[in-house]
Amino acid sequence: MITVFGEGRGFRVVWLLEEMGLAYRLRPVDLFAGVENDLEFLAINPGGFIPALQDGDVIMVESIAIMEYLMARYGPTPLAPAADDAAFPAYQQFLHLGEAGLAASIYFVNIARNFAPPTERTSHLAEQALEVFETRLRLVSRQLAGAPYMAGDRFTAADISVTYALNLAKRGVGFALDPSLTAYMARATARDACKRALETCQSTKAWHARTETEAGR
Ligand SMILES: N[C@@H](CCC(=O)N[C@@H](CS)C(=O)NCC(=O)O)C(=O)O
Fold this sequence. Notes:
This protein is an alpha+beta fold. The protein contains nine helices and four strands. The protein has a four-stranded mixed sheet with strand order 2-1-3-4, covered by helices on one side. Helix 1 runs parallel beside helix 3 and helix 1 packs across helix 8 (192-200). The chain is globular and about 50 Å long. Glutathione is lined by residues 8-9, 31, 48-51, 62-64, 99.
């Protein structure tokens, strides 16, 4: 049985598992309660961050690497275009840009805005992180000017990667997504597998409900 530890970016993994129709269980990890007493989780990931994956003897962290592992081991799947597919370079680029360029930067803007002491809510570092997010987002917008999805005509795991970051920007820091990005988000997240993932990820679902009215502020 595949076990996903933690939501947050674990939502990407759960969504992918739903798309692929693989059996799994979600093991909640409460970062706000502190993980220092969660010895079972710390045995899986001594770093204490989420998500982590356990699949038999395999233990992994990093949401994008976990998705690549699952698609390679249990594929082939249309979620991952093959290397000789014309869609492959864009797929590969946006799969990683979604985390390394977008989520990693907006994550720290979110921490600064919502969790830092009041005097540190606007800092040079947070401004730099926001600028990194915004400059990388231009690549997403350029892609959407010519195609409905990150890899072109079809939905792939790159869309799972990128939409997680856009959602965090929208709900976490009130980043205003333009109409093209909003339409893209709606298109990608309308999938049944995404809806099923949200039912599994109850903390994420509650966060969506909490931020529904605030998003876009
Ligand atoms: N690049 C990692 C980022 C992991 C990460 O930063 N996760 C956040 C929650 S989504 C976390 O656990 N933060 C608490 C910490 O780093 O201690 C991934 O894509 O999995």
